[in-house]
């Protein structure tokens, strides 16, 4: 039942404005994909193109290998079997929870319909709320109803537009995990749109980072963090700073904190000036190290402390240090490089 | 949008581009534009007589009636606005913020006077307080024949009647403002050392100012538009001036001239009102949950219910009681076939107008949803401007072009076929209904636009993604969600048309008497008792929207 989705060089323009350009990705059956990017990057438009609410200006969208969108041809949304959970949930205020969930089941026999409602409400943990109206529910409950409603007609593909943005942080994390479980349990292919990377990491198997209408990188969370394809991704995902460095040879770069060993893009040749991405976990606190840096800011995070350090050259770096290493502002502490993945971009 | 996309297009298509959206002719825009034209025609016709004054008519008006009309209109509008403003705000403060015995009862019952048309309150007051009325007679019996009440048929009397009938507008809006501003602001005031009275004057009142002023602007517009009440009190203002110029002097130019002046006054008020509305939009309304009321003690605890009770008695209980008393007295003789004919015509007319206007307003609301943008917004605002135009002005503004068209038609028929034709449009229901449409479109549009706003675009899309086609979408999502708005719009227009007097009086087909025109006819002969029977029917109809309203606002 689960579908695979493929976008081939999809573009969308509104009048003069190009909102999505040359966007391609492929998502296998039962996978959860995520489009991640700052607001206004075009990620929601991509979702609406897949749902069929907008027509593509160029390129092609395939569902199970069947073209559903190409310029001049668009299967209407009601015939795509694509479910959608909206950012504002878009529950029908005149219908009860049961009425909302069965809304898309109007062609089903009554007995199966009733069974499906029971099954779904059990799945999202809303048994006993059949007769409630949307306004009587909390935000999290409304979100579950929206999910149940979208899942009810057994869609080939489920789209979720910022599903947690209206909820508070704690609820967000819990529902995120629950949602992933439900999707995996039902074996549904899903695409999620969010600007929150923690949400993307927690939910998705594959993540596409978008910026200015273009897909920057389509990858797993691990690789997005440790092997970003370009500066935007490096900057957008996780924390870190760029430090200037010089390429020594094909697998070594020297920065002021020492020499880094590893592979990096081949465009950088010997003597080439590069910017090297240093994550907070790349700098380890080590009292025995001769390399000293001054603490200019500290943020207590419970298990660890995030120190902002001033390097001898005057540059700044971040370091994530176990919480019991409590140092005062202005204090000089010893640091050591511990880099697994060298990320460098030509200057 | 398309004009920008294709700059190489030639000039003529720029005009067509206005009606296009993404290259296609937009029926929605055409519809909105047509409505704007329909509103613009009477306004332009009337305004053009301001730009091209007929010197003869003008001099006659200026010499004879104009100074008095201007003085009366200004005095009355100002007096009623101030009085209704103070009365409405005071009552709103008492019922929204304070607590005293009977508060819950008064908070809804003080809206009841809305059910009485001002001219009904007016003629009951005149009947009661006139020289020959029961009260004056009683006073003379008790205290001797020299005892006189101040003359009721005066500007003061008209102002009293209008204030009692119109203060609920201010009351409603001010009450909403006081309820929604919450207690937090007042607590800030208390923590800064303000007494209760200072808190009211320096915090609550300024915060509620846009709403109060909006209510007062409504009152001012209703007063400027009022025809029936001033007719009852024999206190000539522009509206009765227009009517007399038309029906007594048979001078359409004079009537149009007066209408054009009245419209100037209206636009001043309208301009102020629109600016205040903008203010309402930007004023934040804090959460009002968990509020505590100011419990009145001592003198206030006694005076507040007495005051509220006195207002309710004078504005509603006494007029209704007197109406019923009179109606019972004449029912045996007047409750005949003719009465049922008045009632039937009123109901038929109101039903037709409610259907037509609600349908039009619904289309207008959809047009706005379909084509969002500043241009559409401006056109919708213009199309719903008619609520501010007095009925007497609209009657003239609709009648003049129709008479012109009929003359053209009759001339044409004579020339072409050598046959004597009658007027095609004048004195038809069509002319009447289009005047109602212009006047009451806003009344229907407001609840419908609000209802449609509740159907977010994502709800449409959710329904689509769940497999519904357009027809099913309308049937299963839009209709159920719009039902309440449609019913409200129909009721409001229905009742407004039943109560409407000047348009009905001036544009009705010959012999088409309704309840309202019957009231006018009877009151202009001083037969208050016989006007009471049709007024009772209007009261019953008028109670329906008030009950709807109290259900919404009661807390």
How would you sum up this structure, described in words?
The complex is a heterodimer of chains A (347) and B (555). Chain A is α+β, with helices and mostly antiparallel strands and 347 residues long. Chain A is 22% helix and 36% strand. Chain A is built from eight helices and 21 strands. Chain A has helices at residues 43-51, 97-101, 110-123, 139-151, 169-186, 197-203, 221-226, 231-236; strands at 5-14, 17-27, 32-36, 58-63, 66-70, 73-74, 82-85, 157-161, 189-194, 206-211, 214-219, 241-249, 252-255, 258-261, 273-278, 283-285, 292-300, 304-310, 316-322, 332-337, 344-346. In chain A, the strands form four sheets. In chain A, strands 7-8-9-3-10-11 form a six-stranded mixed beta sheet, sandwiched between helices. In chain A, β4 and β5 (66-70) form a beta hairpin. In chain A, 40% of the residues are buried. In chain B, the strands form two sheets. In chain B, strands 1-2 form a two-stranded antiparallel ribbon. Chain B has a two-stranded parallel ribbon with strand order 3-4. The two termini of chain B are 48 Å apart. Chain B has 555 residues and is mainly alpha-helical. In chain B, 77% of the residues lie in helices and 1% in strands. Chain B has a domain at 68-238 and 276-330: MetI-like fold (Orthogonal Bundle), CATH 1.10.3720. The longest helix of chain B has 36 residues, at 299-334. Chain B has 24 helices and four strands. In chain B, a hairpin with a 2-residue loop joins β1 (20-21) and β2 (24-25). Chain B is globular, with a radius of gyration of 26 Å. In chain B, α19 packs across α21. Chain A binds chain B through residues 15-16, 51-53, 76-84, 86-88, 90, 92-94, 103-104, 106-107, 149-150, 152-153, 155, and chain B through 1, 4-5, 454, 456, 458-459, 461-469, 472, 476-477, 480-481.
End-to-end separation of chain B in angstroms reads 48 Å
In this structure, how is the largest beta sheet of chain A organized? 6 strands, mixed
Helix content of chain A: 10-25%
Number of helices of chain A: 8
So how many helices of chain B?
Answer: 24
Class from helix and strand fractions of chain A:
alpha+beta
Number of strands of chain A: 21
Name the chain pair whose interface involves the most residues.
Answer: A-B, 30 and 21 residues
Q: How much helix is in the residues of chain B?
A: over 70%
Parts with pLDDT < 50 across at least 5 consecutive residues of chain A: none
Largest sheet of chain B: 2 strands, antiparallel
**Category by helix and strand content of chain B:** mainly alpha
Percentage of residues in strands of chain B: under 5%
Q: Low-confidence spans of chain B: pLDDT under 50, at least 5 residues?
A: 1-13, 282-290
What's the gyration radius of chain A in Å? Answer: 24 Å
CATH superfamily of the domain at 68-238 and 276-330 in chain B: MetI-like
Question: Mean pLDDT score of chain A, rounded?
Answer: 90
Q: Count of DSSP E strands of chain B? A: 4
Order of helices and strands of chain A: EEEHEEEEHHHEHEHEEHHEEEEEEEEEE
């Amino acid at each position: 039942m689960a579908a695979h989705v493929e976008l081939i060089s999809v573009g969308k323009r509104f009048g003069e404005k190009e909102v999505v350009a040359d966007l391609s990705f492929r998502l296998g059956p039962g996978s959860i994909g995520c489009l991640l990017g700052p607001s206004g990057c075009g990620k929601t438009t991509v979702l609406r193109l897949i749902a069929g609410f907008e027509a593509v200006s160029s390129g092609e969208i395939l569902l199970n290998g069947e073209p559903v969108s190409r310029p001049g041809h668009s299967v209407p949304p009601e015939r795509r079997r694509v479910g959608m959970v909206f950012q504002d949930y878009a529950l029908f205020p005149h219908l009860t929870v049961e009425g909302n969930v069965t809304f898309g089941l109007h062609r089903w026999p009554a007995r199966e319909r009733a069974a499906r409602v029971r099954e779904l409400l059990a799945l999202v943990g809303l048994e006993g709320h059949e007769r409630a109206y949307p306004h009587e529910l909390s935000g999290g409950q409304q979100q579950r109803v929206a999910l149940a409603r979208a899942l009810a007609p057994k869609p080939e593909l489920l789209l979720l537009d910022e599903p947690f943005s209206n909820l508070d942080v704690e609820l967000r994390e819990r529902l995120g995990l629950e949602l992933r479980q439900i999707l995996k349990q039902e074996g549904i292919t899903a695409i999620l749109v969010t600007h929150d990377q923690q949400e993307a990491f927690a939910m998705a198997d594959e993540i596409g980072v978008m910026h200015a209408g273009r897909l920057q990188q389509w990858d797993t969370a691990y690789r997005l963090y440790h092997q970003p394809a370009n500066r935007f991704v490096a900057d957008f995902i996780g924390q870190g700073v760029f430090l200037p460095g010089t390429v020594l040879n094909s697998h070594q770069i020297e920065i002021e904190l020492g020499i880094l060993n590893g592979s990096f893009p081949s465009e950088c040749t010997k003597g080439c000036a590069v910017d090297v991405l240093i994550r907070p976990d790349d700098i380890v606190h080590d009292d025995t190290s001769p390399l000293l840096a001054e603490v200019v800011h500290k943020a207590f995070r419970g298990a660890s402390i995030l120190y902002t350090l001033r390097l001898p050259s005057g540059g700044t770096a971040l370091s994530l240090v176990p919480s019991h290493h409590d140092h005062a502002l202005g204090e000089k502490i010893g640091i050591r490089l511990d880099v697994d993945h060298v990320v460098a971009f030509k200057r | 949008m398309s004009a920008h996309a294709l700059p190489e297009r030639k000039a003529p298509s720029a005009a067509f581009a206005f009606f296009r959206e993404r290259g296609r002719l937009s029926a929605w825009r055409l519809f909105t534009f047509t409505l704007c034209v329909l509103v613009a025609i009477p306004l332009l016709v009337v305004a053009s007589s301001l730009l091209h004054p007929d010197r003869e008519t003008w001099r006659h008006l200026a010499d004879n009636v104009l100074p008095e009309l201007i003085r009366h209109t200004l005095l009355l509008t100002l007096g009623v606005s101030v009085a209704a403003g103070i009365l409405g705000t005071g009552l709103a403060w008492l019922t929204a913020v304070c607590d005293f015995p009977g508060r819950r009862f008064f908070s809804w019952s003080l809206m009841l006077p809305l059910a009485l048309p001002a001219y009904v309150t007016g003629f009951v007051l005149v009947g009661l307080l006139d020289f020959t009325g029961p009260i004056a007679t009683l006073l003379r019996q008790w205290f001797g024949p020299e005892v006189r009440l101040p003359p009721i048929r005066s500007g003061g009397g008209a102002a009293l009647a209008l204030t009692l009938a119109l203060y609920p507008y201010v009351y409603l809006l001010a009450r909403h403002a006081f309820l929604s501003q919450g207690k937090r602001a007042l607590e800030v005031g208390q923590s800064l050392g303000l007494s209760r009275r200072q808190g009211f004057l320096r915090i609550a009142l300024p915060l509620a100012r846009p709403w109060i002023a909006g209510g007062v602007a409504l009152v001012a517009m209703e007063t400027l538009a009022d025809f029936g009440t001033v007719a009852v009190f024999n206190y000539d203002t522009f509206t009765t001036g227009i009517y007399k110029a038309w029906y007594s002097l048979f001078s359409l130019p004079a009537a149009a001239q007066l209408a054009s002046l009245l419209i100037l006054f209206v636009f001043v008020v309208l301009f102020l009102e629109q600016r205040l509305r903008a203010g309402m939009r930007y004023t934040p309304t804090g959460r009002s949950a968990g509020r505590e009321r100011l419990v009145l003690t001592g003198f206030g605890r006694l005076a507040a219910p007495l005051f509220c009770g006195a207002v309710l008695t004078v504005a509603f209980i006494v007029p209704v009681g007197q109406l019923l008393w009179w109606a019972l007295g004449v029912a045996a003789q007047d409750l005949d076939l003719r009465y049922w004919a008045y009632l039937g015509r009123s109901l038929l007319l109101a039903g037709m107008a409610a259907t037509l206007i609600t349908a039009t307003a619904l289309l207008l609301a959809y047009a706005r949803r379909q084509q969002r943008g500043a241009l559409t917004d401006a056109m919708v605002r213009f199309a719903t401007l008619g609520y501010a135009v007095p009925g007497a002005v609209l009657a003239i503004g609709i009648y003049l072009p129709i008479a012109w068209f009929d003359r053209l038609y009759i001339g044409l028929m004579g020339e072409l076929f050598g046959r004597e034709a009658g007027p095609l449009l004048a004195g038809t229901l069509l002319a009447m209904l289009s005047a109602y449409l212009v006047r009451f479109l806003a009344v229907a549009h407001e609840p419908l636009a609000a209802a449609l706003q509740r159907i977010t675009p994502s709800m449409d899309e959710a329904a689509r993604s769940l497999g519904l086609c357009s027809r099913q979408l309308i049937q299963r999502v839009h209709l159920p969600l719009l039902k309440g708005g449609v019913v409200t719009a129909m009721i409001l227009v229905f009742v407004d048309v039943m109560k409407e007097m000047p348009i009905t009086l001036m544009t009705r087909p010959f012999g088409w008497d309704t309840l309202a025109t019957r009231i006018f006819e009877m009151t202009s002969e001083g037969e208050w008792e016989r006007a009471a029977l049709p007024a009772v029917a209007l009261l019953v109809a008028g109670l329906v929207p008030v009950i709807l309203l109290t259900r919404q606002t009661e807390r």
